[in-house]
Amino acid sequence: MKAPGISIRAGGLDDVAHVLDFWLQAAEGTDRRDSPAKVTALLHHDPGALLLAELPSRLGEPTTTQLGERVTAQPGTPGGELVGTLIAGWDGWRAHLYRLAVHPAHRRQGIATALLAAAEDRFSRFGAFRADAMILQGNTLAHPAWSAAGYAPQPEWSRWVKPLA
Fold first, then answer.
1. Are the beta carbons of 55 and 105 closer than 8 angstroms?
2. Per residue, what are the HEC states of the chain?
3. Which residue, 30, 44, 108, 118, shows the most beta carbons closer than 10 Å to its own?
4. pLDDT tens, 87-116?
5. For residue 52, what are the β-bridge partners?
6. Separation of alpha carbons 91 and 128, rounded Å
7. 83 close to 53: Cβ distance less than 8 angstroms
8. Nearest-5° angle of CA 6, CA 18, CA 140?
9. pLDDT given at position 137
10. Which positions ≥6 away from 49 have C-beta within 8 Å?
């Protein structure tokens, strides 16, 4: 599948409100207590972590890339139609993937593949040897996409959590 005209860039502070609205439409698990403050904190901690996939606006503002090339996220100016997101967090030790979301009207066009390629390229530049992804067990729509990208559950681990608030 190709994602013609898709541009991948690092999100910035001007994108926060739009990304939060987008997640309500396109992301699973909206019980995460997302807020502008939390996304802003992410951007301050790891400025390149929020990857945005955009289609060119009617004015053709974003630079386009071709799927099949290694896509590297570039800082840019908001202006395209937001069609996908991925948080590619690097904590200095591990590479973590969260919030892979593609707008329902644009799924199965290679957008998730382009976002994952950009994230993996970002992690490689940091020297990461592995990336882990947080995927809801009940989000069975996402499982084939992650599997096709080469990701698999790690059976010897489970996630243990403790709510802090």
1. no
2. CCCCCCEEEECCHHHHHHHHHHHHHHCCCCCCCCCHHHHHHHHHHCCCCEEEEEECCCCCCCCCCCECECCCCEECCCCCEEEEEEEEEECCCCEEEEEEEECHHHCCCCHHHHHHHHHHHHHHHHCCCCEEECCCCCCCCCHHHHHHCCCCCCCCCCCCCCCCC
3. 118
4. 999 988 889 999 999 999 898 888 999 999
5. 9, 85
6. 10
7. yes
8. 65
9. 82
10. 10, 42, 43, 87, 88, 89, 90
Q: Strand 50-55 vs strand 74-75: parallel, antiparallel, or unpaired?
A: unpaired
Phi, then psi, of 74 in degrees rounded to 5 = -120, 140
Provide the greatest CA pair distance for the chain. 50
What does pTM read for this prediction?
0.80
Q: Give CA–CA dist 160/22, Å, rounded.
A: 28
Sheet of strand 74-75: strand arrangement: 74-75, 7-10, 50-55, 81-90, 95-102, 131-133
User: Rounded distance, CA 149 to CA 158, Å?
Assistant: 21
